[in-house]
């Protein structure tokens, strides 16, 4: 019965071009990657899909630190943080992350999590009990949505970046505890939340501003300090979640906030308490990543990435002007996330497949990850791409556009 029911639903998803397929990478995360799909042999692809924005996932300083961390601290942590799994490597990383965030959150304390998903599942349920209200952008990442749903708070969602609606919701809310929750860089669109205006609203209505900087940490702001630094914000009302598996190139996440908030998370947040601490070697490698982010190497990588983003946008604009009937559009993004919005699910898959035949790997993103009717290619750039790589992608899209035109 269950199997029949699931098989029927799987067939329905396939008919709507919603089946998701994994590819298996046979080489480290990099623009040139050997990947295999469904039992086929691995082939060399030029990839535009990782969130490894600075090309640190395979940086020699980080792989060396991971190996050294394993030698010093072993392979596993052995227990959760509150039992016996909290190591010197975790403690040191938390101190470094607290210092990293101190210019933006006075007296910040930082808490390391195994993943960003878990950090977001920890936050809202721990801070927003029954009677509290959470205000959330409609395009927030799934993990923020799930965290809000898991909490006992009332959830109010506002249209993407619509601060007029947000203010109306805040002004008519009589909860004692109010949490505004937002992506800093929206993960499928690449655009930025207006954090200064949102912080002003938080101050005006005595709310807290939770910022998920999964796509800003390491790339935005001087030294890659993230979106709060980019906007020059500083407030005790900020609760910051940064992830360490994207631009930082390793794994895990952290929450930085007022020390009382962090102590409350340590005492009560179930996704923090009831899970084995990440291997200390991971934390050791993240510490090495922070050094690279703040170094001249990091600065050069961010500058090169910005150059590639501008180049891609210029070239795609020319291409779309030449083929208006395709109905493609770019998002209002100046980050490494550059979605090419196609609209129809099947059309996005056809385009992704046409690129794949040319050895270009750009994933099609469909509902429910993005709103219905906005299926897209989610192009992500990395500092490890070359100008030539970007031009190859543009050429591949031009070839596909010609084919689809007839
Ligand atoms: C990737 C992502 C997360 C989850 O972080 P992981 O460390 O990958 O679990 C959370 N929020 C946003 C906006 C993300 O893009």
Question: Can you give a write-up of this model?
Answer:
The chain is 44% helix and 17% strand. It has 406 residues and is α/β, with parallel strands linked by helices. The chain has 2 domains: 138 residues, Aspartate Aminotransferase, domain 1, CATH 3.90.1150.10; 234 residues, Type I PLP-dependent aspartate aminotransferase-like (Major domain) (Aspartate Aminotransferase, domain 2, 3-Layer(aba) Sandwich). The strands form 3 sheets. The protein has a 7-stranded mixed beta sheet with strand order 4-10-9-8-7-5-6, sandwiched between helices. The protein has a 4-stranded mixed beta sheet with strand order 1-2-3-13. Helix 5 packs parallel to helix 6. The radius of gyration is 22 Å and the shape is globular. Its cofactor is pyridoxal 5'-phosphate. Keywords: Acyltransferase, Biotin biosynthesis, Pyridoxal phosphate, Transferase. This is 8-amino-7-oxononanoate synthase.
């Amino acid at each position: 019965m269950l199997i029949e029911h699931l098989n029927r639903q799987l067939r329905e998803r396939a008919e709507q071009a919603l089946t998701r397929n994994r590819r298996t990478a046979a080489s480290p995360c990099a623009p040139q990657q050997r990947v295999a799909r469904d039992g086929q042999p691995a082939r060399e692809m030029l990839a535009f899909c990782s969130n490894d924005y600075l090309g640190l996932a395979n940086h020699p300083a980080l792989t060396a630190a991971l190996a050294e961390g394993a030698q010093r601290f072993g392979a596993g942590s052995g227990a959760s943080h509150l039992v016996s799994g909290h190591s010197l490597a975790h403690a040191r990383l938390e101190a470094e992350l607290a210092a990293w965030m101190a210019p933006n959150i006075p007296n910040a304390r930082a808490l390391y999590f195994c993943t960003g998903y878990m950090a977001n599942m920890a936050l809202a349920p721990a801070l927003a009990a029954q009677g509290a209200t959470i205000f959330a952008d409609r395009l927030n990442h799934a993990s923020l949505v799930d965290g809000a749903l898991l909490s006992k708070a009332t959830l109010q969602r506002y249209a993407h970046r619509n601060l007029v609606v947000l203010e109306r919701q805040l002004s008519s809310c009589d909860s004692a505890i109010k949490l505004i929750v937002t992506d800093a860089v929206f993960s499928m669109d690449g655009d930025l939340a207006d954090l200064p205006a949102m912080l002003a609203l938080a101050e005006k209505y005595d709310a807290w501003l939770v910022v998920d900087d999964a796509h800003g940490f390491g790339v935005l702001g001087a030294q890659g300090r993230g979106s709060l630094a980019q906007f020059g914000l500083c407030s005790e009302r900020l609760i910051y979640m940064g992830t360490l598996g994207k631009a930082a190139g390793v794994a895990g996440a952290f929450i930085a906030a007022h020390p009382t908030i962090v102590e409350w998370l340590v005492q009560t947040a179930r996704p923090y308490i009831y899970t084995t601490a990440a291997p200390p070697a991971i934390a050791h490698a993240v510490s090495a990543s922070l050094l690279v982010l703040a170094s001249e190497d990091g600065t050069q990588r961010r500058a090169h990435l910005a150059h590639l983003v501008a180049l891609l946008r210029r070239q795609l604009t020319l291409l779309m002007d030449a083929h208006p009937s395709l109905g493609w559009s770019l998002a209002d993004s100046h980050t490494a996330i550059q979605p090419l919005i196609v609209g129809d699910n099947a059309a996005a898959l056809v385009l992704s497949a046409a690129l794949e035949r040319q050895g270009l790997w750009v994933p099609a993103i469909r509902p429910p990850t993005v709103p219905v009717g906005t299926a897209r290619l989610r192009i992500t750039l990395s500092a490890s791409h070359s100008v030539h790589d970007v031009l190859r992608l543009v050429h591949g899209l031009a070839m596909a556009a010609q084919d689809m035109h007839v």
